[in-house]
TrEMBL record:
Pathway(s) the chain acts in: Ketone degradation; acetoin degradation
Record-annotated membrane-spanning stretches: none
Keyword Cytoplasm attached: no
Any one of the GO BP annotations: acetoin catabolic process
UniProt keywords, alphabetically: Acetoin catabolism
Record-annotated Histone deacetylase domain positions: 22-316
UniProt protein name: Acetoin utilization protein AcuC
Keyword Nucleus appears in the UniProt entry: no
GO molecular function: histone deacetylase activity
Domain of life: Bacteria
Length: 396
């Protein structure tokens, strides 16, 4: 009998470590796993420890010369010169880089396999989500693209269409580029505009290559967007397009660097909005894909206040045992944070007061506001993509 959900986790996953002072500290996932355990979320999922992806699996989305170069850097990090993207400020080389990166790929591919083969309805790999890695180079803290490998595995094993929705603050450029010419994959990225944030890509006019027009979807939002407007953008784009595309599986990336406290971006969101987005995408998987849902982590650099809460919510939602926003954080977890990091963690699983919940999201059907920067960004995307799917630009 299939489990409701599985979660990818094992202590070896913390070896994806760029060193002291790097924003993508493995502490963020260690604290997430500890919170999932202390809060009882892991009691409702099957916890799966991944192996390590071999070169054949990696080569489904990466050039073999690139894989060989990562292996070389992994064995002799002091010789990295940045030519393959490794050995830069963003992606410092470290011993064991290949093995640690390949383990993330194995986790997301195993999540995809379990969902596709019916062993789990939903699967979460909050250690994955390396959406910037390109076919031939590392980029933006990402060495191998575990999401692309998971999607490719699904396609190679019988899935006819896969929809990918990315709500990280940064454009999901690596996944988009790998599948830009493939009409079987729809990539939807809702991100802060490239005018103000890395990687400087992801424009509404980027809609897919020849024969795949309308399958690349980009919503470039202005800085400073808050909860209700961000959720309006996701629901006004992802929901109608995923319904129209009718995928077999929904794959999502839940980078939580959209939070107002994230040090690397400029958005104004709460954990409550990130939880709301996970609920929305979970519901979408049930509406369109018979529940087949693979969810990953991604960016997120407030290691204590944001990442553990956001991805514990994600895992709990996948288990059909969601955690209420006002749930108190376990005393053991808070004491661990205070004793090891000398930081005072939040007290509850949400940021908002009860009087501020639920977050009200204005549906697109209530009308387009040309004075709103967010609405203009959403409209630019709808105008670029919706006609290809026979959808009305103005009304849902």
């Amino acid at each position: 009998m299939a489990t409701q959900a599985c979660a990818i986790w094992g202590d070896d996953l913390v070896h994806y470590d760029f060193g002291l002072g790097h924003p993508m500290a493995p502490l963020r996932i260690a604290l997430t796993a500890r919170l999932c355990r202390d809060l009882g979320v892991f009691d409702h999922v099957e916890v799966v420890e991944p192996g390590e992806a071999d070169d054949e699996l990696l080569a489904t989305v990466h050039d073999r010369d690139y894989i060989a170069s990562v292996r070389s850097v992994s064995e002799q990090p002091h010789l990295a010169d940045g030519s393959n993207g490794c050995g830069t400020e963003d992606v410092p080389a470290f011993a064991g880089m290949h093995e640690a990166s390949a383990r993330l790929v194995a986790g997301t591919v195993e999540a995809a396999r379990r969902v596709w083969q019916g062993e789990a309805e939903h699967a979460v790999n909050f250690t994955g989500g390396m959406h910037h890695a390109m076919r031939d180079r590392a980029s933006g803290f990402c060495v191998y693209n575990d999401i692309a490998a998971g999607i490719r595995w699904l396609l190679d094993n019988g899935a006819e269409r896969v929809a990918y929705v990315d709500v990280d603050v940064h454009h999901g450029d690596g996944v988009q580029e790998i599948f830009y010419d493939d009409p079987r994959v729809m990539t939807i990225s809702v991100h802060e505009s490239g005018r103000t944030l890395f990687p400087g890509t992801g424009w509404p006019a980027d809609t897919g290559g020849p024969g795949a027009e309308g399958t690349a979807v980009n919503v470039a939002l202005p800085p400073g967007v808050v909860d209700s407007y961000w959720l309006r953008a996701i629901s006004s784009i992802a929901s109608p397009l995923v319904h129209a595309f009718a995928p077999d599986v929904l794959v999502t990336q839940h980078g939580c660097d959209t939070h107002r406290d994230d040090p690397l971006a400029h958005m104004g969101l709460t954990v409550d909005a990130q939880r709301h987005a996970a609920v929305l995408l979970h519901r979408l998987a049930h509406e369109v894909c018979d529940g087949r849902w693979v969810a990953t982590g991604g960016g997120g650099y407030d290691l204590v206040n944001v990442v553990p809460r956001a991805w514990t919510h994600l895992t709990a939602i996948a288990s059909h045992q969601p955690v209420a926003n006002r749930t108190e954080l376990p005393a053991a977890w808070r004491e661990h944070v205070q004793s090891t990091l000398e930081r005072t963690p939040p007290e509850t699983m949400g940021d908002l007061e009860p009087s501020e919940l639920p977050i009200w999201v204005q549906p697109w059907s209530m009308g387009y506001n040309p004075h709103s920067e967010v609405d203009r960004a959403v409209m630019a995307t709808r105008e670029a993509v919706f006609p290809a799917w026979g959808l009305d630009v103005w009304f849902d």
